[in-house]
């Protein structure tokens, strides 16, 4: 399996949506498309997005939000937020999520980011365990009552 990690371009929002379409996740498809169309034009200013690809097939994605309205999650200077980590079902547990996470952490350190945050649904125990394994801990309740915020210090840059 040859996996290539690369930064996404603003016009490629539909490649993220394709992961959901291929997996027939109709319940999330419309919402993901709406968010992707809003988020991808912010590449380079408020966020960075990476794709994991096998050949020409996008099999994973992750975002690094540099600046958010919730400034304790991403303030544009020292704190940034992991957002929309998605790995296609057939590729989960293969280490692609870890590769994407390491890519984001490396970029965050280069930008002088000291703290990473993320929001995760309370009931998504699998994701919460992965984030704990990566060094995240509980920070606070989420803006959405169904979510929590987790935080990770990147240590000395």
Write a structural description.
Keywords: Acyltransferase, Transferase. It comes from Candidatus Roizmanbacteria bacterium RIFOXYA1_FULL_41_12. This is N-acetyltransferase domain-containing protein. InterPro entries: Acyl_CoA_acyltransferase, Bact_Acetyltransf, GNAT_dom. Residues 3-155 form the N-acetyltransferase domain. The protein is of the alpha+beta class and 157 residues long. It has a single domain (3-153), classed as Gcn5-related N-acetyltransferase (GNAT) (Aminopeptidase), CATH 3.40.630.30. Helix content is 31%, strand content 32%. Strand 4 (79-87), helix 3 and strand 5 (115-121) form a beta-alpha-beta unit. It is globular and about 35 Å long. The chain is built from four helices and seven strands. Strands 1-2-3-4-5-7-6 form a seven-stranded mixed beta sheet, sandwiched between helices.
């Amino acid at each position: 399996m040859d996996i290539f990690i690369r930064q996404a371009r603003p016009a490629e929002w539909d490649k993220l949506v394709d992961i959901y379409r291929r997996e027939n996740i109709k319940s999330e498809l419309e919402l993901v498309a709406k968010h992707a169309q809003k988020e991808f034009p912010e590449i380079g200013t408020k966020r960075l997005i990476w794709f994991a690809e096998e050949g020409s097939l996008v099999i994973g994605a992750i975002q690094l939000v540099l600046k958010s309205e919730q400034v304790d999650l991403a303030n544009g200077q020292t704190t940034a937020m992991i957002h929309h980590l998605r790995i296609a079902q057939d590729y989960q547990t293969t280490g692609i999520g870890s590769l994407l996470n390491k890519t984001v952490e490396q970029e965050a350190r280069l930008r002088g980011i000291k703290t990473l945050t993320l929001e995760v649904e309370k009931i998504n125990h699998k994701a919460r365990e992965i984030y704990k394994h990566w060094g995240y801990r509980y920070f606070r309740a989420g803006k959405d009552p169904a979510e929590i915020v987790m935080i990770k210090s990147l240590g000395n840059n």
